[in-house]
Amino acid sequence: MHVPTIIERKRDGKTLDEGEIRHLVQAFTDGSMPDYQMSAFAMAVYFQGMDAGETAALTRAMLESGTSFAWPSHAPRVVDKHSTGGVGDKVSLVLAPLLACDGLWVPMISGRGLGITGGTLDKLESIPGFRIGLSADEALAQIGRIGVVMMGQTESICPADKKLYALRDVTATVPSRPLIVASILSKKLAESLDALVLDVKHGSGAFMKTREDAVLLGEAMREVGTAMGVETRVCYHPMDEPTGRAVGNALEVAEAIESLRGAGPADLRDLVLTLAGEVSGAGREQLAAWLDDGTAFDKFREMVVAQGGDPGSLDAFEQVHPAPVVREVRSPRSGEVRRVDAEAVGRAANALGAGRSQAEDAVNPAVGFDRIVKVGERITAGDPIARIHAGSENDADAAGMSFLSGFLCE
Ligand code: URA
Fold first, then answer.
1. How far apart, in Å, are the Cα atoms of 81 and each of 106, 302, 315?
2. Cys staple from 93: which of 45, 256, 292, 403, with CB 3.0 to 4.6 Å?
3. Which CATH class is domain 3-63?
């Protein structure tokens, strides 16, 4: 097949067949198709889009560029969740062990922070000793023993996505719906799931700013996931204020531990129980009981131990990464909290060092915000509305101003 002809057909809005798409993905993965041709193709897809059949073909070709988990015949139902990402979204840390309490297998492969949205791997790495770089064999053995693993993408899972994502990142072709669908689903399908719940976020702190865009993405993922034999559930949630009251890697782990012990913020607990209910046969009451009676926390601790983490650190996690400067932000006015803008908080947390500006940057586990007020709460002028954890007084000053720029109370 002639690569320039395939690119030209997509550029002109034609529908590609499965063979053409497979050829491009294989040639790109084995290096025989250079980056400049794939960049041109990605831009053609960005402008012309792809129909459901093409998107499914792209997803399958990316999935088949690498290996998939192979479960034994006695395996129970294998399930996972994917979130399109948000600010303060630590749901995975609570949800994965909770689902394993139901006897499900949860092979959760997660990513790092992207833009202002945090990443589960960065959060997990704030647990001293915790290893996210497991091999497929280690992951299979751990799942067989305790039912849950939380890890990064291995070299052999979806190499086509790894290469294409890096290229999209530098060619302004990340925000293309078919490319996003194929990228997310190929990695999730490599887990050989029976069921997947997708938490598609919309709002200021999300990738998709409007609910309409979120629904277009969610429906496209439902269609492709279902066509590929996975029971695919889609939930839509606003991301206009941060999830919970903490934003920042270790601060979010501390909040997730509270939630795993039956406490923590109501919105986080509600989101966890809703998403868990989509893929678990256990009712909401039973799921809540596993949070309240310590079963879910015990499962989390078991996973931390299995992956080399220090279980002792979990007992007082807020003391594990003390920031040099910890300071309150106070409300300039009295009234009801109307807005705590997720985007402003996410940007401020990134500026403190919780996220990256370049792929190779290290994140600072200690920094961010906690004790953030929630929309609807009534406060008096001078009340604390968040606590900043910063590396320096200057950083804390800037973070306080950014936080207040997204805060409204009247
Ligand atoms: N996350 C992914 O894994 N891929 C995308 O394309 C976007 C978000």
1. 9, 20, 27
2. 256
3. mainly alpha
For residues 324-352, average pLDDT = 97
184 lines ligand 1 (CB under 6 A): yes
Q: Regarding the domain with residue range 325-409, which homologous superfamily does it belong to in the CATH classification?
A: Pyrimidine nucleoside phosphorylase-like, C-terminal domain (3.90.1170.30)
Give phi and psi for 200, each to the nearest 5: -95, 120
State the architecture of 79-315 in CATH terms: 3-Layer(aba) Sandwich (3.40)
Q: Output the CA 91–ligand 1 centroid distance in Å.
A: 18
Distance 33 CA to ligand 1 centre (A): 22
Catalytic residues, by residue number, are 82, 161, 168, 183, 187
Model confidence band, residue 388 (pLDDT cutoffs 50, 70, 90): very high
- The residue ranges of every structural domain in the chain are 3-63, 79-315, 325-409
Closest CA to 108 of 96, 98, 100, 94: 96
What are residue 123's phi and psi, to 5 degrees?
-70, -50
Task: Quote the tokens at residue 164.
Answer: 């294409």
How crowded is the C-beta side of 106, counted as CA atoms within 13 Å? 29
275 close to 237: Cβ distance less than 8 angstroms = no
Give the model's pLDDT for residue 359: 66
Of ligand 1's atoms, which has the minimum distance to the CA of residue 182? 6
Widest distance between CA atoms in the chain? 69
pLDDT in tens, 132-186: 999 999 999 999 999 999 999 888 899 999 899 889 988 989 889 999 999 999 9
Task: Indicate the SS3 state at residue 125.
Answer: coil
180 lines ligand 1 (CB under 6 A): yes
pLDDT digits (tens, 9 = 90+) for 84-93: 989 999 999 9
- pTM for this structure? 0.94
Tell which residue, 125, 120, 303, has the closest CA to residue 199.
Answer: 120
Using DSSP bridges, classify how beta strands 79-83 and 106-109 pair: parallel, antiparallel or unpaired. unpaired
Query: In terms of DSSP bridges, do strands 384-390 and 368-370 run parallel, antiparallel, or are they unpaired?
Result: antiparallel
pLDDT at residue 169, as a whole number: 81
Q: Whose CA is nearest to atom 2 of ligand 1?
A: 184
* DSSP state for residue 17 in the 8-state scheme: P
Q: Which has the closest alpha carbon to 124: 405, 365, 400?
A: 365
